[in-house]
Specification:
Layout: E1 2-7, H1 18-27, E2 30-35, H2 43-51, E3 56-60, H3 75-82, E4 87-96, H4 104-121, E5 125-130, H5 133-144, E6 151-153, H6 160-168, E7 172-175, H7 185-193, E8 199-201, H8 223-234, H9 238-252
Parallel strand pairs: 1-2, 2-3, 3-4, 4-5, 5-6, 6-7, 7-8
């Protein structure tokens, strides 16, 4: 029924009870999960999780926080690892100027390497952006000029203007539990108007547990709560939203259908 398009099943808070977390997700109607890598040392364990479950898929990538510690990760390395049958996406990658854990120039180099891998493989680019809207949009636009690639802005929290730019470039937008927070009015307005055929949902578990679970460790089962809130926000029933966002996931992450 639901697809959690972005979670971290290997992270602390989930990995200790991974089997139970997966079972709870299935019990909540989550039929598919995409578990995301953020560092090279995670790649093997992320792929192993996906290998062990027909309803879980994996991504290969380096988070912008980790760009400084991964200057050796090249497009060729990403392409090679993305050839695994359970790997359906490239990332997460992007720019994060809020924490600045890595040099901004190195973040951009990392970002562009992932974009090249997405273009080479045809697998969707999974983009993290925080306090870096202008540079994120500029890099995506510049790289689109070199050749189109499928793109998803994950855990969308940016401005309405950035949403419009991303949509105009063909990107999809994924909404997390943040949309349920009382102070997320601008995000709620944007989420209400994202075209139905470009909308996905996610948890980013173990982070960002939605209302009514705020303060708890997030887990994929909670995507159902985000879906119910988002459906009400958009004036549709939750089954319609589930069907639409699931169809969008499999259209974007086409390898997950094979």
């Amino acid at each position: 029924m639901f697809v959690d398009s972005h979670c971290h099943l290997n992270y602390k808070g989930l990995v200790e009870q991974q089997a139970e977390v997966i079972d709870r997700a299935r019990g909540a109607g989550v039929s598919t999960m995409l578990t995301i890598s953020t560092r090279e040392r995670e790649w093997d364990e992320i792929v192993a999780i996906a290998e062990g479950h027909d309803d879980i898929w994996a991504s290969i990538g380096i988070h912008p926080h980790e760009a400084d510690t991964h200057p050796h990760v090249t497009t060729d390395m990403l392409v090679a690892r993305a050839g695994h049958p359970r790997v359906v996406g490239i990332g997460e990658t992007g720019l994060d100027y809020y924490y600045d854990h890595s040099d901004r120039a190195q973040q951009a180099v990392n970002f562009r390497a992932h974009i090249a891998a997405s273009r080479a493989t045809g697998l969707p680019l999974i983009v993290h952006t925080r306090d870096a809207e202008d540079d994120t949009a500029a890099i995506i636009a510049d790289e689109m000029g070199k050749g189109a690639f499928p793109c998803l802005i994950h855990c969308f929290t940016a401005s309405a203007d950035f949403a419009d730019k991303a949509l105009a470039m063909g990107c999809y937008i994924s909404i997390s539990g943040i949309v349920t927070f009382k102070n997320a009015k601008e995000l709620q307005e944007t989420a209400a108007r994202v075209p139905a055929d470009r909308l996905l949902i996610e948890t980013d578990a173990p982070f960002l547990a939605p209302v009514p679970h705020r303060g708890r460790t997030g887990e994929p089962a909670f995507v159902a709560d985000t879906a119910r809130f988002l459906a009400a926000l958009r004036g549709v029933d939750v089954m319609t939203l589930a069907e639409t966002t699931s169809a969008n996931f499999f259209k974007l992450f086409g390898k997950a259908q094979t």
